Automatic annotation (TrEMBL):
Substrate binds at N9, W10, K11, G173, S213, G234, G235. Belongs to the triosephosphate isomerase family. It is found in: Cytoplasm. Its main location: cytoplasm. The lineage of its organism: Bacteria, Pseudomonadati, Candidatus Omnitrophota, Candidatus Velamenicoccus. This is Triosephosphate isomerase. Involved in the gluconeogenesis. Catalyzes stereospecifically the conversion of dihydroxyacetone phosphate (DHAP) to D-glyceraldehyde-3-phosphate (G3P). It comes from Velamenicoccus archaeovorus.
Length: 254
């Protein structure tokens, strides 16, 4: 059985003081959740302090991006060994905001992915089409391109360590969620691509999260879809109550 995982992507939100408060609230409200995985991804500046709060709890820690080199003259960047040293177990790669605003491409995502795996970080690789692409009937072409090229060159053992997040760009921060059927259709398509590239057993083991305006009110119907194995939550992960409700909703509905 593949693991159900709810991750919070805090994006560029929360000072260190605010991040500690949020992490402490989640630790208090979610201490007894054991059936599903929980991850928080604070901004770089708060990772060290949040690591202390979630140390030896059921809450995993992730970063939102990294560079593919271990070290060097890359002003403003951080590397996988730096994240590992702080206690990160996960890293989000290829988020649409990075693709859209910071020139992230499948090629750079792929290099980062290989570095993350080399250093024992679990990558959460984001894929998803824009509204324009969906309306032009190009959703499956875009997803195929993101999945095939971002995940290129991984062997059977490596691919099993990857989490994929399907995030339709038009559903991010807009309050417009994909319907459970729309999301399921793309999740199934991703799993079929993995099956063709690897095997049925491997495809069945890979966690595919949905992201895009996930809220306490819609998690249950999303998670009850066969191929939706969790969520990558933005806005609703910034508040203890709403993130805890999403986690609990996922636990009872899967
Ligand atoms: O981008 C997202 C998570 O990575 C989704 O953001 P929202 O939940 O705010 O739509």
């Amino acid at each position: 059985m593949r693991k159900i995982i709810i991750a919070g992507n805090w994006k560029m939100n929360k000072t260190t003081v605010e991040a500690i408060e949020l992490a402490n609230g989640l630790k208090r409200d979610l201490y007894d959740i054991d059936a599903i995985g929980i991850i928080v991804c604070p901004p770089f500046t708060a990772i060290d302090e949040v690591a202390e709060v979630v140390y030896q709890t059921n809450i995993g820690l992730g970063a939102q991006n990294m560079h593919w080199e271990d070290a060097g003259a890359f002003t403003g960047e951080v590397s996988a060994p730096m994240l590992k040293e702080l206690g990160c177990g996960y890293v989000i790669l290829g988020h649409s905001e990075r693709r859209q605003y910071f020139h992230e491409t499948n090629e750079t995502v792929n290099k980062k992915l290989k570095s993350a795996l080399k250093h024992g970080l679990t990558p959460i690789v984001c894929v998803g089409e824009s509204l324009e692409e969906r309306e032009a009937g190009r959703t499956f072409d875009v997803i195929r391109d993101h999945v095939t090229n971002s995940l290129k060159g991984l062997d059977k053992e490596e691919i099993k360590k990857v989490i994929i997040a399907y995030e339709p760009v038009w559903a991010i921060g807009t309050g417009k969620t994909a319907t459970p059927d729309q999301a399921q259709e793309v999740h199934r398509f991703i799993r079929d691509l993995l099956e063709k590239a690897y095997t049925r057993e491997i495809a069945d083991e890979i966690t595919i999260q949905y992201g895009g305006s996930v809220k306490p009110g819609n998690i249950k119907e999303l998670i009850s879809q066969k191929d939706i194995d969790g969520a990558l939550v933005g806005g609703a992960s910034l508040d203890v109550k709403s993130f805890a409700e999403i986690v609990k909703g996922a636990q009872v509905s899967k």
